[in-house]
Amino acid sequence: MGKREDYISWDEYFMGVAHLSGLRSKDPNTQVGACIVGKDNKILSMGYNGFPNGCSDESFPWEREGEELETKYPYVTHSELNAILNYRGGSLEGTKLYVSLFPCNECAKAIIQAGIKTVVYDSDKYCGTPGNTASKRMFAAAGVTCIPYSHTGRQIHISV
User: E strand or H helix at 148, and its extent?
Assistant: First the structure.
């Protein structure tokens, strides 16, 4: 008997981990996950969008509209930054980031500064907005390769 042939690819695996991480987010509207991978295909860190440690999910707002301080935007840490901050192993130079949503301009800065060289993203729903355009411009200038995730159409179900 030979080896099993229908195993998932590395890209499916790491994007799946990013999406699974996003399911930890308490945000009622947007769940984004990220997974940082080393050159040897080892997961180094993961993150999802949420409030910083010590900032209660019950006390801070989840609203998308209204007075700025009454919305989630000044408080939420994005998945990419959480993944970078969660890493405790030293340098992230030359690593790859899998993320379910193309990084905003603030996360792009952190990704570049951390030394991450490849971003594999699933959705680019904010394509063409000023923040998205700024991200792409900075990534290009810093030599960060951005690759859209190539869907295989495979259905992966996890029962727990």
Answer: strand 145-148
**Whole-angstrom distance, CA of residue 123 vs CA of residue 101:** 5
pLDDT tens per residue across span 129-139: 999 999 999 99
Q: What angle do CA 109, 98, 13 make, to 5 degrees?
A: 170
80 is catalytic: yes
Catalytic residue chosen out of the listed positions 67, 80, 93, 106: 80
**Helices 10-22 & 79-86, crossing angle to 10 degrees?**
100
* pLDDT (average), residues 4-12: 91
Contact between 49 and 86 under an 8 Å Cβ cutoff? The reply is: no
Which SS3 state, helix, strand or coil, does residue 36 take? strand
pLDDT given for residue 159 in this prediction: 83
Does residue 1 surpass a pLDDT of 90?
no
